[in-house]
Amino acid sequence: MTAPVRRSPLAHRKPASAPDDLLHLSERAFDAKIVLRGTPDILGPALAEVAGVEMPEPTRSTTSDRHRLLWQSPDEFLLLGPKDTELALLDALQAALDGAHVQIVNVSDYHTTLVLAGPKARETLMTLSTLDLHPRGFTVDQVAGTTFGHALGWLVQTADDEAEGGPVFEILVRWSHADYLFCELTHGARAFGMPESKPLSGELMEI
Amino acid sequence: MFVIDCPNCGPRDQSEFVYGGEAHIARPTKSEDMTDAEWGEFVFMRTNTKGLFAERWWHATGCRKFFNMLRNTATDEIHAVYRIGEKPPKVDADLPATPAGEASIGSGNDAVKIMRADAEAGS
Predict the structure, then answer these.
(1) Does A152 sit within 8 Å of B16, measured CB to CB?
(2) Domains of chain A
(3) Which domain holds residue B90?
(4) Which residues pair with A157 in a beta bridge?
């Protein structure tokens, strides 16, 4: 018998959907997440070798087949990868950047990822954020750190507005804020028929 | 509330930023020779300018970097945003005019000031 070693912060919530595929909200926990501090010219070759990603422009992100690299500040980048690859990534990056003036931290368990997809995703985010979320103002692969209600999060658009099923946004949010943000997003999307999220067990959170 | 043009992230709402106080205050290099009065001057005394004011801001939710800003404290008009370590740029602004045409210092309650001036002249 295998013991569960990790429990996602939204294990008690089912993915939520609005009717007619207007909006889908779900959690994707346990992605590999690694923060890299350092200048792009030092980090660039190592990241190209280990993850196959180029260094992103400010407020943008770049992708390879398995990884995504988010710009967070001029000397801070967040590397995302598939589940359970964080230790291998960490070892590879530490080997590639051995002796360089950088910091590499595994933050896989700091954040979880909320995936918001559908034609009404932008309007739902607009209820919680002060960002310019017009399709001209926020485009695919763009990254922004901001507040959603009271929760801090990093927003990245991973699929274009013209894509099948509408745009897809991912919000990287602190583990302990994830439940609040999930409820706020379902609450913000109630105009599109999104049902209020009820936990599968435990205490009912009224917001 | 106003929009601040972060030098790293672009225009964002003021709610994402934290005020960092007056800019261009250098930390004393020979602190061991300073008197308490000089320390107090460095730590506590600020100019409290009405009009064009150089101040630091911190983009707390975005890039988490400090930067400098030239802002008219009377009108909240932002004249320049520049990086830490840079000198404040020259700005061509009609200062310190306020929307109501208040006095350049004080609360703007001119009636009170005129009364005080009269009292001083008479005594």
Answers:
(1) no
(2) 16-29+110-192 (3.30.1360.120), 32-106 (3.30.70.1520)
(3) 3-122
(4) A169
